[in-house]
Amino acid sequence: MSLLYNRIGPRIIEVATLYQEDVIEEPRDLIDLVITQPILSNLELKLTAKDLLHNNQIFKQGDKRARVNSKDPTLSLGLSYKL
Question: How many structural domains compose the chain?
């Protein structure tokens, strides 16, 4: 089992032009969870949940909001076989 935390800081998404300022992604927190369970000697089950906090991506240009992307958690289930 793994619980992962990541803090994305402010970063430039679009570089400024002569007439407009840079578009900056605002900081946000991410939490991912990965659970791996061996079933047989060569078979493994893996459950992954990404972006559990589902904080929106907010982009600003100067003092104004340029856009907002809503983020939902992503779940995946995998089965792997080791040769």
Answer: 1
Is the distance from CB of 18 to CB of 25 less than 8 angstroms?
no
**Domain encompassing residue 77:** 2-81
Pairing of β 28-38 and β 57-61: unpaired
What pTM does this model have? 0.73
End-to-end Cα separation, the chain, in angstroms: 23
Strands 28-38 and 43-50: antiparallel
Q: What is the pLDDT of residue 31?
A: 96
Rounded Cα–Cα distance for residues 33 and 76 (Å)? 11
Task: List the Cα angle 71/74/79 in 5-degree steps.
Answer: 165
